[in-house]
Structure formats: C-alpha cells, structure tokens
Amino acid sequence: MVELASRKRWVVGITGASGALYGLQLIRSLIEADQDVHLVVTEAGWRVLKEEQGWETSKRQQAIDAAFPGLVESGRLKLHPNADIGASIASGSFRVEGMIIMPCSMGTLASIAHGISDDLMTRAADVMLKEGRKLLIVPRETPLHAIHLENMLTLAKLGVKIIPAMPAFYYGPQTIHDMVNFLVGKVLDQLPLDHDLYRRWGDEQHGV
C-alpha cells in the first residue's frame, strides 16, 4: 500500500481584481503551514501585480523567484502559465486538495459559474467542481449588481465557499497587513489549516 505524502498541494489563483496582496500573503501562509502551491495568474492579474506591487512582470518566472526566494527551486511553489491548458492542474487525475482564487474578478467568477473553462484558471476551477474538491473564491468588487450576486449564488449552491474581501475591526488592526492577514486567516480556517494570523473573537489572552 502506497501512503500519500502528508504535505498537501493547493492551487492558488490570482486574477485582475484589486487586492493581489491577498493572494501573495496566502501563498506565504500556505508554505509556512508546510503546504505546496501551484500558482496561476491571469493576464489582468499580472497587470495588477505590476500596478499594486510594483513588480517587473515582463519576466514572470523571475518575478516569482524574486518574491519567493528558493521556493520554486525547492519544488514548493510552481508557476503555471494561464494559457497552458495542458498543465498538471488542468486534469482531475492530478491530486490537489483544492483551489483558492484570491482575489477573484467578477469575470472569472462568471466564467466558473457558467462552466466556461477557456484558460487554465477557469479549467482548474472546473476540475475542482467536477472532482468534488474544495473551491474557495474571494471576490473583490463593489458595488455588486444582480448578475454578480446570482453568479455567486450559483457557485454557493454547488458547495463553493464565497469569502468576500471584507475586513473586520474587532481585533484592532493597525496596518494594511493586519487586515490582509485577517482575510487570509479566514480562508485558512476553511481549508482547514492552523494559523495565528489574527486574534479571534473571545480570545482573552490579549484582551478585547
């Protein structure tokens, strides 16, 4: 009998919605939790990484290597081109625990809700649905119109976890990173993976 490795694989998607920092912190947190990450970024996602994070995105693999030193070389993090519809994560036979799209644009969300899988991002998400694996979507848009809400309801009915990018303030965040960590922590709770990214309600160790 062959035993599966204790280290799990997760797919992380970063789209063109504002909030690329959420996805980057999620990758770091998954690696810190001894998980492996397969990353896919849409064209618009690369644009956001350039605009919001100041990345030089003309050489994408080098940009990932610079942001996550040593992780690609060690095999802990693998970048897949969004156009590579034949990548490992496009097949249900490739074992992963699930996928988190963080942040998720309304365009990507709509494609997934309607079964349109014409790139690796949406194909990987479709695989999660057909294989009954975890799919978590972090939409980042405001305000929301009826089509957005209907698409989210469609996915929720299929068991997809919808975790909107909504900050909380009860734990006294002091920085943007505190607020990012809160949302990443809420995602990790759903996987579930242990973390200490934010103070939970009712935790009296640090007071309220």
Automatic annotation (TrEMBL):
Taking the record's annotation, the residue ranges forming a coiled coil are none
Residues the entry annotates as binding dimethylallyl phosphate: 170, 186
Family, per entry: Belongs to the UbiX/PAD1 family.
What does the UniProt keyword field contain? Flavoprotein, FMN, Prenyltransferase, Transferase
Q: PANTHER family given for it? A: FLAVIN PRENYLTRANSFERASE, FLAVIN PRENYLTRANSFERASE PAD1, MITOCHONDRIAL
Q: Output the superkingdom of the source species.
A: Bacteria
Q: Tell me which residues bind FMN.
A: 16-18, 42, 105-108, 140
Reaction equation(s) it catalyzes: dimethylallyl phosphate + FMNH2 = prenylated FMNH2 + phosphate
Q: Know the name of this protein? A: Flavin prenyltransferase UbiX
Function, as annotated: Flavin prenyltransferase that catalyzes the synthesis of the prenylated FMN cofactor (prenyl-FMN) for 4-hydroxy-3-polyprenylbenzoic acid decarboxylase UbiD. The prenyltransferase is metal-independent and links a dimethylallyl moiety from dimethylallyl monophosphate (DMAP) to the flavin N5 and C6 atoms of FMN.
